[in-house]
Design goal:
mainly alpha, 7 helices, elongated
Length: about 180
């Protein structure tokens, strides 16, 4: 029996991952450009862009929540895996299954709590831009919904043999060594 997901589901997963990564790259680029321009203008003149710090901070919040899932797919989050690596066979599969369920429950809980938080912030506005803070706080439920998707996408290989996805353009072992 073939345990791989149907072609349409695999294509949807690839599309979601691609959009997620593209959003992260775009947000990082925009945030960097805003900070660079703001610092340059402040250095070259006495003028400061009043909204630059607030926008870059909110872009960073979005970037962080959007990045949880794709980094998890590659096994890039800090994990204490000494005990699971000492187990073998069925014991290891059961433990990794429990870990996957706990992570899934955590993501669902934070998705729900993030949704409630967003609802409470709809009528609050940001300090400089004076837009609804819900635009910022919606990063929590959206980020954890995407994290839940990414977690489900890698759950089976993780539970079966502790494997994560690999990426042609990112070596997770080299990221922290820079």
């Amino acid at each position: 029996m073939n345990a791989s997901p149907p072609f349409a589901l695999k294509k949807l997963d690839q599309w979601i991952l691609s959009v997620n990564r593209s959003l992260m790259i775009t947000l990082l680029g925009v945030m960097s450009a805003i900070i660079f321009v703001s610092v340059s203008i402040r250095y070259l003149s006495d003028y400061s862009i009043p909204w630059a710090e607030e926008v870059s901070r909110y872009l960073m919040v979005w970037l962080m929540f959007l990045g949880i899932g794709p980094v998890m797919r590659l096994g890039g989050h800090i994990a204490i895996d000494t005990f699971p690596k000492t187990l073998s066979g069925t014991s290891a599969i059961i433990l990794r299954g429990i870990i996957a369920l706990i992570i899934g429950a955590f993501f669902m809980t934070l998705l729900w709590v993030g949704w409630l938080y967003m609802q409470k912030t709809i009528h609050q506005s940001t300090a400089v831009l004076e837009i609804s803070f819900a635009w910022v706080s919606s990063s929590v439920p959206i980020g954890f919904a995407l994290s839940l998707w990414h977690g489900v996408a890698v759950a089976v290989p993780y539970v079966k043999n502790g494997a994560y996805e690999t990426s042609d353009d990112l070596n997770i072992d080299e990221v922290g060594a820079i």
